Amino acid sequence: MADSxxxxxxxxxxxxxxxxxxxxxxAYPEWAGEMKATEILAEDGDGWPDRVRITLDAGxxxxxxxxxxxxxxAEDGTGSVSWTRVEASVLKAxxxxxxxxxxxxxxxxxxxxxxDLKIPVLGMLKRKAEKVxxxxxxxxxxxxxxSL
Length: 148
What we know:
alpha+beta, 7-stranded antiparallel beta sheet, 3 helices, 7 strands, 50% strand, globular
């Protein structure tokens, strides 16, 4: 992803437990503070969410948008899930990916995100917003998975 922001976290749980939380998009408003509402619009044949409408309030970035998801997950929960913006009011792009790898202590989750707005915003402000979104999402994901 061009001009994306990346970060990683270690979660003390197996990849299957982590991907179960990531895939439960309808529950995000319960634990992901910036996501105010989610609605599954379509699922693939395996039950993975394919298209999701999300209402986000991440400070400088507020929007309701639709994402298409691509799931490349092995039976043990390792692999990646990526998403691409389909439509939005404010966001020109909201493309990202989680990659899950099993490690001795549990799961390493790598998160990459690229946000672009339809309104002019300095690149450094967009990168700062991406960093805040990523860091918050990873910390909240870790807390959610490890509390189950």
